[in-house]
Structure prediction request, 281 residues.
Amino acid sequence: MRASVLLLGCMTIPVASAVRADDCGSAGVTPSRDVSSVAVASSEPTADERLSNLVETIVREAIPHEFEDDKHWGKRKTVVNGLDIETKRGLPRISKRERAVRHGFWRRYVVTLLDPQETLHLRIDNLRSPANGEFRWDLHVGTRANVEARFEHWNLGVKLLNGSMDADATLHVHAACSLKITLETDEETSSPVIVLSPTVHAIDLAMPDLDVNKFGKAQGPVVREIGSGLEDVIEELLQTQEKSIRKKAQKSIDKHADDLRIPIGEFFTSRWSGLWRVPRP
Prediction:
């Protein structure tokens, strides 16, 4: 059973189980009729269900299951391993024999989502009245994640230190979005349809509650110093992913554009119809 939920102004759009919507009416949205109480003799999903599932699908397609930073892993240094002597035209010729050996402080960080089917939560809020024909709103995503850090210290091929750390945290994703709503005529059916055109403008990733569970083999002040700097390293890793996630989210939205075309009758019996009643400036 998933425990995720979408909040849109004062409209609560359940993905699995509903919770209380905060700040109802902050955007001047009037909650629409609860269509879940209406008996409909049909196995087809409602517009609410389709749109809620679509938002969740876009989120899952945009956020990778795993982030990794291994740019400092596998460093090597070329050292002289001996001398080669050969004779050319009766004269000795000496050349250095070299090889690459492991050297330096190696570290690798991996962030892995923990069972997002169970821990993923979605919330839409801060809906603002449309400017230039577009609504502005924020999407908040939260899911549990595991952070694994491995490190090794090498000096010219000799391992001096190695260890690992393991931590759990909640990955927070904030997406600044806009939504344009237009009325069109479907080319095939000649019926009016509501077209939703969302745009993702910016993504911000954060992991503020990093909780280190255990250290590996190595102990001592060096390891503790590495652990204290883990939050800064993870923040840097997350920042490198933000641009990619924004592009993936927009690509997923474009891919599902047909699912964002809603027959006008279905739209006005859904909770999303509250958008139509947001006061225009």
Q: What stands out?
A: The chain has one domain: 5-38+47-73+104-277.
